[in-house]
Write a structure and sequence with these properties.
Blueprint (H helix, E strand, L loop, with lengths): L1 H14 L7 H13 L2 H17 L1 E2 L6 E2 L5 H5 L4 E5 L2 H10 L5 E4 L17 H9 L5 E4 L5 H14 L5 E4 L15 H9 L2 E2 L1
Parallel strand pairs: 3-4, 3-5, 5-6
Antiparallel strand pairs: 1-2, 6-7
Length: about 200
């Protein structure tokens, strides 16, 4: 019995590593796993291992991919780049279904309180992409919070000398919220109503 309790505790603790999962939810997940057939548990465990081994960042835009270059970068021809904080923001914008340009994932925002400056996120890579001469507009779609606004302003300031149109998504998304939680209509409207910076 002791081994079962220890292994159960270990599984519960593992589930609490996930964002937004507290002790009670972790316990529910753990009991659900115990109830599953062995094949389903093995599939679940194999899927976790596989995603950690195969998923990486696109060498062009920084989005998640299981190849060197993501499907969006491979298949889309566009002169517009939408800049987002993290890969899950790409998915949120794609669900809105009204943007068919390219992306650039920063993997963070400028946040002096956490010691994160422009050199700690993928701004240099953005400037390199834009300097190629094929991009006419950069849409900054960072979250409408203090860090997102500081990052957006910095990007606008650094790209203006390159004669690139820099726009910011409209404020249909409330201040302090995250893009991934915005509904498709709000996000679609925010992109359509973007403003030049």
């Amino acid at each position: 019995m002791k081994d079962n309790i220890e292994s159960m505790e270990k599984l519960i603790n593992a589930f609490t590593y996930l964002p937004g999962v507290g002790r009670k939810t972790a316990e529910r997940y753990a009991y659900s796993i115990i109830s599953l057939p062995n094949d389903d548990v093995n599939f679940f465990a194999d899927s976790l291992k596989e995603v950690k081994q195969k998923v990486k960042f696109c060498k062009v835009c920084g989005n998640f991919t299981d190849d060197e270059v993501c499907e969006i970068c491979k298949n889309r021809k566009s002169d517009i780049i939408c800049v987002v904080k993290e890969p899950k923001d790409v998915l949120a914008i794609e669900k809105a279904k009204n943007y068919n340009g390219l992306y650039h994932v920063l993997h963070g925002t400028i946040n002096p309180l956490e010691g994160k400056g422009p050199n700690d996120i993928r701004i240099k890579e953005l400037v390199e992409r834009v300097s190629g001469g094929k991009i006419r507009e950069v849409i900054v779609a960072t979250n409408p919070d203090v860090e997102g606004e500081v990052t957006a302003s910095y990007i606008a300031q650094i790209l203006k000398p390159l004669n690139i149109k820099v726009t910011r998504i409209a404020q249909g998304i409330s201040m302090g919220s995250a893009l991934q939680y915005a509904d498709e209509v709000t996000l679609s409207k925010a992109i359509a109503d973007r403003k030049e910076m």
